[in-house]
Structures are given as C-alpha cells and as structure tokens.
Design brief:
The protein has 380 residues and is of the alpha/beta class. It contains twelve helices and twelve strands. The radius of gyration is 20 Å and the shape is globular. Bound molecules: iron/sulfur cluster.
Length: 380
C-alpha cells in the first residue's frame, strides 16, 4: 500500500485567465478543440460533499470533519447552472450528467433537473439528462427525480459483499440499500440503468464475478472501471490497477463474451455482450463494459467538459486548473453571447489528453503544473 499524500495547500483557487474575446468571434460553427474534438458532453458537479469516503476519490484521512467544503454562497445557484448549461447546449452539448460529490445531497435538486429537462437543442430535441450517484438516497428519491425529468442514472457500486463494499467506501452503508435504490430507479422508469464498479487490485477484484452474475440478464449494464490516479490524495499506484484486459479474461472463464461496437462517439466504456451457447451475443443476457483510462486511453474522441460546483470549467478529469465562469455569470454586464464566445474560445484552445500521455510517458510527467484537481470537486 503506497504512502498517502496529505494536501497541505488547497489549490482550488488559482484559475486560468479567461480568453480575450475578439469582436469578430462568430458562433456560426460548433467549436472543435485543438485535437478536432467536438463539445457534446457536459458534466456538472452540484456539490463537493458526499456521504461516502471512497478511498479512490475522497479518502477519509483527507476529507475529514475539518475539511473546508465550499460555502453555499460559492456554489452556482440552480438558475446560474441552467443559464450556463443553456449556453453550452447552444455550443453543441447534447448530454448533461449531474455529479458531485454525491449530487443527491444537493437540496431540492429536482428543481434543477426540471429546469435542465426543459432545455432543447437547436434542433428542438431534449437533452440526454443523466446523473451519477452512490445510490444511498436513490430509494427515497427515484420517483421525484423521474417526475422532475431525469432520464436515467448511473450508480456506483464496488462490490456485493458488505465488508468489501465498506473497505472501498469507508462508511458503514449496506449494499442492500444501494440495491434497493437501483430497484426503485427501475420501478420509477429511470433507464437504461448503469452500474459502475471501480476495481482495485488487492481490495475488490474477487467481487468481479459475483457482480457480473448478479446483474447478468437484469437489463442493467455493469461497467468495470480501472482504478485511476485522479486528484492528488488517493495514493494511487500502478500495482493496484487491474487492467481491463484481465477483467475480460476473468469474466470469459465463466461468462463467455463477444465484443460489441460503441453506441456513440466518445463513449468511455468498451462494450462486451454476454454470449449464448453458439457464441453469439444474446441481448436477453445483456452486456458488460470496461472503462480503461489507464491501460487503453480514450482521449482521442473525448468530448467532455466539466463544470465544478462553483462554476470552474475543467477540460480534463486530470486537469490541475480551470476557468472561472462564475465571475462572468455574476457580472450583470456580461451577455449570454459573451459567455458563449468565452466557452468557444476555451474549448478551441483545448489540447488535453492526460491518459494518452500517461500511457506514453508515465503518470507524473503527463500532467501539467500544479496538483490535479480532486474528482469529488469536478465529478467523475
Ligand atoms: S484523460 Fe482527459 S482528455 Fe483523456 S479521456 Fe479523460 S478527461 Fe478526456
């Protein structure tokens, strides 16, 4: 087990300078970044708080009772989130994922979901509106989320065995309650439902087959995520990464798989279908996915931007600095057109590809100056 890093300096504050807008900046074409990737996916963190302490995201020793969470006045209001989301939709965003911390801890989140669900693309289509949750509050909230306009959910669940689950999330929360939340989401009509399991070698890899058996044929898509060096506090080391290729090999020993094509460009998960006795994909058995940021980087078509809880725009999960859009949102002299020009200029200048560089150069040399931002602050 490697040495944990204790954050002496909270580095949320420095942000990158906003681009200078040129009067001629037209918004006719949707922006492509420096690697010709479109902006179609926005992840919005609505809180930096969580009721779990997953060791790979919010280790308890760091995010303890003395941790300085953001004061409420720093958080973007629902109206500010909806205004900036409207601007992003005008610049190409078709999918919004609400994240955190734990997004269901944000009071009255249904109000925000109603506002976002009312948004339409320039073509008049609804957005793909989804949310990632640890499932702890889902049983109670599934119906109201659905009624507010949420379409689907992704639930994080790192094992079925309570002791293993506890070792991963470091709180005393029973697996049964998360499973009840998933059932409530299904009953409310939130779907397709996805379940994400972070695999940490030496901690929960023996839960891979039990999880696959549990969700096979359920209509729920289980994805295995390689343990990542996100942020600067989880003490990540390569020895604790179980490459997705090994996960697939393990599954195949008992549950034969066939590889499936991606459903959309920029999809993070590699899809594998459960095979029938003839070795063909059987939709009734369903599929499983692997998300391999460490061993099979997918930066090539990464179309994701991330908005932190207080309105900073990050261009990569492994970024160390972001752009403060809140100052523009709270400046009455700034128009939506200027916001859109700013988003465009920032995106056009984007060249982030941390995972690809990590696989070429190794973890430490791949990231830029400063410490990587915490995943709990910008959402996974
Ligand atoms: S490492 Fe950064 S650029 Fe690459 S896929 Fe992840 S978020 Fe996108």
């Amino acid at each position: 087990m490697s040495e944990r890093v204790i954050p002496l300096l909270d580095q949320r504050h420095p942000s990158l300078p906003l681009p200078t807008l040129l009067s001629g900046d037209d918004l006719s074409a949707m922006p492509l970044d420096g690697l010709r990737r479109p902006l179609t996916d926005l992840r919005i963190s609505v809180t930096d708080r969580c009721n779990f302490r997953c060791s790979y995201c919010m280790p308890k020793e760091i995010f303890d009772k003395d941790y300085a969470y953001l004061p409420h006045s720093h958080l973007l209001s629902f109206e500010e989130i909806t205004r900036i989301a409207t601007v992003f939709v005008g610049r190409g965003v078709r999918k919004i994922r609400l994240t955190g911390g734990e997004p269901l801890l944000r009071k009255n989140i249904e109000i925000l979901i109603e506002q976002l669900a009312a948004l339409r693309t320039p073509e008049g289509l609804p957005l793909d509106l989804t949310l990632t949750t640890n499932g702890s509050l889902l049983a109670r909230k599934a119906q109201s989320l659905k009624d507010a306009g949420l379409q689907r959910v992704t639930v994080s669940l790192d094992g079925l065995d309570d002791a293993v689950f506890r070792r991963m999330n470091d709180v005393d929360f029973p697996v049964a309650d998360v499973l009840a939340g998933i059932e409530a989401a299904r009953a409310a009509g939130l779907g397709p439902i996805k379940v994400n399991m972070v695999v940490k070698r030496g901690t929960n890899e023996h839960e891979i087959l039990p999880m696959a058996r549990h969700f096979q044929g359920s209509g729920i898509v289980l994805r295995f995520i390689e343990y990542m060096d996100v942020g600067a506090t989880n003490g990540w080391c390569m020895d604790e990464v179980l490459p997705s290729a090994e996960v697939i090999r393990l599954l195949h020993t008992e549950l034969p798989l066939v590889q499936l094509d991606p459903t959309v460009a920029g999809e993070t998960a590699e899809r594998w279908g459960y095979a029938n006795a003839n070795g063909e994909y059987d939709p009734a058995l369903g599929e499983v996915g692997v998300i391999s940021s460490v061993t099979q980087a997918f930066c090539g078509d990464c179309n994701r931007a991330r908005l932190s809880t207080e309105g900073r725009l990050y261009l990569c999960l492994f970024a160390s600095q972001g752009y403060d859009l809140r100052q523009l949102l709270r400046d009455p002299a700034r128009s939506d057109h200027e916001l859109a020009q700013t988003v465009d200029a920032i995106w056009r200048g984007r060249t982030d590809q941390y995972s690809r560089l990590r696989s070429l150069r190794g973890p430490d040399t791949a990231s830029g100056p400063g410490r990587r931002v915490e995943m709990s602050y910008i959402g996974g």
